[in-house]
Structures are given as C-alpha cells and as structure tokens.
User: Which sequence fits this backbone?
C-alpha cells in the first residue's frame, strides 16, 4: 500500500484529521479538489485564534504546516472514485491514476442550493448568510431578515433579534404555529407574509428587498438555511449509510466518526447538520484520532 490513510477533502475538517495522523507518524495522502464550501465568505468568525481570517488563508496556513512533516503528501486534485478491494481502499484521482490505503477519511463537504430569488446567489456569504454565530456580529445593529425555506426557519428567526431588528419572511410557505407566533412576538420579530421576489442594492451589499405586493423593505442582511447535498459521490460509491439531516442528507457516523463502512471515517459538514468552522475542525480531529487508533488495533498490511 502506498499510504495508510487517504484523507479526501482539504478544508478545516480534512486538514485537522490529517494533522493528527501525520503527527502519529502515519503515511498520509491528503487530496483536495480546491472548491471548499466557505469560498464565498470573506472571513471566518467565531473560530478561536482565527477570528476574522479568510478561510483560504486558514487553509493555506494549515497546508503549509502539514507540509513540514515528511510523512504526508498533499495533492491538489479531485477524487472521482473510491472502492474497497479486499482489506484496502482504492482511490482514483482525476488525471492521476490510483492510490491505495488501509483507511479513508471523508471530509468531502456539502454543496448548497439557495432559494431561486433574483439577487440571492450574488450575495451568498456576504449579505446573505447562513449562521448568526459565524456572521451575526458583523451585521449587528442593522435591519435583519430571516427567509423561511424550511420547517425550522421560525426557530432561526427567534435567535436573530440578539443581533438586530428582525423580520421573518414566511414566503407564504412556513406560517408559524400559535406557539411559535407567540414566541416570535415576544422577541419583537415582525412577521411578513408577502414573499420576497428580489434582493436590491449594489451587490454584494444588500439595501432592501422587493415583495410580491410591490413594497420595498429596507434590509442590511438576510439569513437563510440552504438545502444541502453531498459535494462528492464518494460516500455513496463506498456504500456508506446516510441519515436525513435538517437541511439534507448526512453521512451516518458514530461517536468515533467511523461510517457504516468499516475503515471509512467521515468528518465536517458532510457528516453533521451543525455547520461551522470550529465544529468541522473538531470533528476532523476526532476522525483522525479514532482512525489512528483503528490502525493500532488492526494494523495496515
């Protein structure tokens, strides 16, 4: 075998997993396709020690630090196929042949599908945001909105007033029930039932939204939880089981981050419905540690 572990994905989760393994002096290959989910964001926030740093800068520094270890290989490429052959895994890299390892760590991430509203996609990661803990402070004090596009949207709207005056746009799809309405009212959230049909302002900034009834509502930022899908087909190719997450499927993984396929571990957004840089990095650490321990129990050939 060329490697003991192949890590697929080089964002926060994959880099953190690789760091544990390479410091354990294992032969590691990290393959990164170079299209991280957070590439649309200017800065990562709430990440201790990295607050305000650009995601690309954090990843670049992580790769630099990993490159100092002699037992890791970093490769910028896309993994197009993975399969199990006997006691090892065979990974096919686009334009670069096959690699083999005893273990795999999937840090392949998810892709986002936003509501089809003109002006929304242009502002994604700037004034159209998914996480108040990641970006709420930077837009605090402004006029904020929550776009309802899933059953948990009302819960999100109850959180946002801690950062600014909040309007909950039901989009005529997710009307809050009696209890939710009482809680939203108690939090000072305005309810708007006329759907948003367009975002206005000099992109990527947001100045207002146009409603279906023609009204213009001033807005500085809007929070929306996109629907998610696997960014890579690798987990499905390997036969990993999936669970229904809050926003889309997630790879089923135990507390030790091992999937339903023995020897395959998963970390980051692909294996959790809770998404942030810190959580992704932490799950990568756990995946790397438990993957290493599995090699101790059942050593690679």
Assistant:
């Amino acid at each position: 075998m060329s490697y003991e572990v192949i890590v697929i994905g080089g964002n926060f989760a994959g880099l953190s997993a690789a760091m544990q393994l390479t410091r354990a002096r294992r032969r590691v290959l990290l393959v990164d396709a170079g299209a991280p989910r957070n590439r649309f964001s200017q800065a990562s926030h709430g990440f201790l020690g990295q607050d305000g740093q650009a995601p690309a800068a954090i990843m670049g520094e992580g790769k630099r630090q990993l490159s100092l270890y002699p037992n890791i290989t970093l490769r910028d490429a896309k993994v197009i196929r993975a399969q199990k052959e006997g006691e090892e895994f065979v990974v096919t890299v686009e334009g670069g042949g096959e690699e083999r390892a005893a273990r795999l760590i999937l840090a392949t991430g998810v892709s986002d599908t936003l509501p089809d509203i003109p002006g929304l996609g242009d502002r994604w990661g700037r004034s159209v945001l998914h996480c108040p803990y990641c970006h709420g402070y930077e837009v605090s004090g402004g006029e904020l909105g929550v776009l309802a596009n899933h059953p948990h949207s009302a819960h999100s709207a109850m959180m946002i007033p801690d950062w600014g005056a909040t309007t909950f746009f039901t989009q005529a799809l997710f009307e809050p029930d009696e209890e939710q309405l009482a809680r939203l009212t108690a939090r000072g959230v305005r309810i708007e039932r006329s759907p948003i049909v367009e975002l206005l302002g000099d992109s990527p900034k947001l100045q207002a939204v146009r409603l279906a009834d023609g009204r213009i509502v001033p807005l500085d930022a809007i929070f929306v939880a996109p629907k998610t899908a696997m960014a890579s087909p690798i987990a499905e190719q390997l036969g990993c089981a999936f669970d229904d997450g809050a926003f889309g499927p997630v790879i089923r993984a135990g507390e030790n981050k091992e999937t339903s396929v023995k020897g395959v571990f998963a970390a980051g957004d692909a294996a959790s419905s809770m998404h942030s840089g810190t959580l992704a990095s932490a799950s990568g650490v756990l995946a790397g540690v438990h993957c290493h321990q599995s090699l101790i129990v059942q050593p690679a050939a």
Q: What stands out?
A: The helical segments are 12-23, 55-67, 132-135, 153-159, 178-186, 234-238, 277-297. The two ends are 8 Å apart (CA to CA). The chain has a mean pLDDT of 95.
